[in-house]
Amino acid sequence: MEDWIWTTLVRALAFGTPILLAGLGEIYAERSGVVNLGVEGMMAVGALAAFAVAQSSGHPYLGLAAAAAVGALIALPFAFASITLRANQYVAGLALTMLGLGLSGLLGKPYEGAPLAHPLPEAGFVAAALLLAAGLWFFLRHTFGGLVLKSAGENPETVDAMGINVYAVRYGAVVFGGAMAGLAGAFLSLAYRPSWADGITSGLGWIAVALAIFAAWHPLKAVGAALLFGALYHLSYRLQAVVSPEFLKAMPYLFVVVVLSLSALRRGPSGAPEALGIPYVRGERR
Amino acid sequence: MRRIGPFLVEKDLVAPPGRVLAVSTAALLLAFLVAGLVFWAYGVSPWAAYRTIFVETLLSPSGFAEGVRRAIPLLLAGVGLVLAFRGQFWNIGAEGQLLLGAVAAAGVALFAPLPGPLKLPAMFLAGFVAGGLWAAVPALLKLRLGVNDVLTTLMLNYVAVYLVEWLIHGPWRGRTAFGFAYTDRFPDTAMLPLLPGTYVHWPTLLLALGLAWLAWFVLARTVWGYPVRVTGDNPEAARYARMPVFWVVFGVALASGGLAGLAGVGEVAGVHGRLLGAYQISLGYGYTAIIVAWLARGNPLGAVLTALFMGLVFASGDVMKIALQMPFRVTDVFNGLILFFLISTERLLYYRVRWAPARKEH
Lengths: 286, 362
Hints:
The complex is a heterodimer.
Chain A: H1 2-31, H2 39-57, H3 60-84, H4 89-107, H5 122-142, H6 144-154, H7 156-161, H8 166-192, H9 204-214, H10 219-238, H11 245-265
Helix pairs in contact in A: 1-5, 1-8, 1-9, 1-10, 2-3, 2-4, 2-8, 2-9, 3-4, 3-8, 5-6, 5-10, 6-8, 9-11, 10-11
Chain B: E1 2-4, E2 7-11, H1 17-42, H2 46-58, H3 61-86, H4 94-111, H5 116-145, H6 149-169, H7 202-221, H8 225-233, H9 235-240, H10 245-272, H11 278-281, H12 285-295, H13 302-324, H14 330-344, E3 351-355
Antiparallel strand pairs in B: 1-2, 2-3
Helix pairs in contact in B: 1-2, 1-14, 2-13, 3-7, 3-10, 3-12, 3-13, 4-5, 4-6, 4-10, 4-12, 5-6, 5-10, 7-8, 12-13, 12-14
């Protein structure tokens, strides 16, 4: 029995890690006021970049760096469209997801089925994700930088009045979110699988977006939420003999709908940043 | 007003059709340019790729018919999304609603003891209802609890995919399917006629064109369209004027889900003749329909043109897959880039640029 609990916990941590990494990035982006629905796409290009670089160079850590860099890079056009050009954030994010899935599927074709000589251990990613969650919570709660980030999402006019560039803060948060989504992808292609296949992210990016809402945009609560989703994924493998596999595969997505509805039922404020999804225009009243 | 070189740039509250056309065309050209760079990175000459696409979709009758065939589901789902977006319902779930329509149609085709001539109408009706109900769930969650509709509609797409997979692997698996996962073939009375030599199921095409006109008429010319337009432009004003915002959002949700459901009926009854794997039925029409709706700029009749255009883009994906051995994901690259450049250039619609060279002072 104790064994069973232990394995469930360990596997839940592993399954939850990509959701946690990408979800933390999304929490930062949304805390600055920008909803980025492109997580799934950024994760996919991150996974491909990690695998391609690790496989051709033989250095998995180089792959890790490439994933973060490529994730950040592909977030830039999204940031330009949604922050500078003030395009609809939802639609811009969808475009980013389509583009990311398309690019990685196309350019990743030569790597399909290729082996990886030096995979990375899952445990390293798990530990790093937990440390990051704690660090990001500390930054948000106890530093001036965190205060500025939060204010950009709650009341950007104040940030502007302080003489700090709202656009720069939001660009930073979105690009950081991209790097985190890239790392989440690297976990899949360097440690969890470890290989590259088109569709490797299988909707995990969307679950990361839901995680930000479910965790009320709080980095530490995100750890608990990721564990919950991870446990669910693990259970869906364990129950395969009893329930039809299609139902189990659909369960995480149904769970997101249920969880979002439950968070909406919660009393009191949801914790959503005031200016979430609203483009900032300098010198204009909201 | 600002001067940029010899041009005067000033803000404008309305976007005249000519400017909309010019800006949209520029966005599409930019998207194709960047897509060309992607092909080049993949190792295919952009020039060869575009020449192949041009010759095999626009110049070949069978290639063009393939584009029209793809445009049918895109038009049905796209018109629905035009309505949804105008009514402030962020429906990203057309893909799942389409699949539910296909499931309902297959259920009626295979199991309903109906006389022959009633079969097809019953399938379309069932598809509309099933797609509408699939959209009604996120609509109610949004209206009653304030749950983000983008995420719920999207999550239900995945659920719909696994529902289809479960049906074809389990209870509905055909007796004649042997090792394959699909249902038995529909009876002939449940199949739509095709234009000879193509997969163009013309009754669905006519239905789609008729519904596009109907949606335009309701939106622009009737008492029901007015609250939808106001809700879309300014929800606060609609609430203040005591317009039935709940019913507007719920109504556009049902209509958009239903229209996507009809698209699913057309695919199984017109092209496949059975229920089969979700990715064989759809290949992402529901997602591409978002671009069809966005490109149509809120006009259901505009969707006729944009659906044909995106249908041809889809057909190009086919061509590139067969002629150039590229993965079908190229369609996603096109889709992503087109959508990205469309929304990025949107702000340009509200600027007037005039040619006014500065006169030399003497």
